[in-house]
Amino acid sequence: NLFERENTSKIKTLASHYEKFLRYDDLIPEEVKNAISGELGRIYIYLCSYQKAKEILENTLERLNKKDKKDYNNIAYILVYLGNIYNQLGKSEKARDILEQALIIYNRYGPKNYKEIAIGLSYLGNTYRRLENYEKAERLLRQSLTIYEKYLPEDYVKVVWILENLGKVYRQLS
Hints:
174 residues, mainly alpha, 9 helices
């Protein structure tokens, strides 16, 4: 995974390729276009281009919501990363609402995508920490940590991030 290895030059190259690929709008099936757009939005989050990521993900979400047959897993995926963007932009209430919506969709419609559920829980926990609801933040971060420890033990970078945020919560609670 390029994100975990923090290979910025390769990530920028990938973004450029994705953008060029998406220019062939009439040749790309809608499902492929939405998948690539979702990944492109994540790339721009990683590169701290939050406005660009937000625009891409909101456009993708709009296309997904127009479809008669909803791709709920992809909708929830996009919402998780949109929530992260709103957190980065300092709009924690909006982030909370979006992240809660994503988790409802994952729980109602999705197969158990443990990684994305854990990411959503961790982002929502961090959002509640920012909103100074430390008890709820602790509960959500612990749920996320439990999923990582049980299903994704190799993702130690995310585990460390969750533990760091739990530490911030505990500092506020004591």
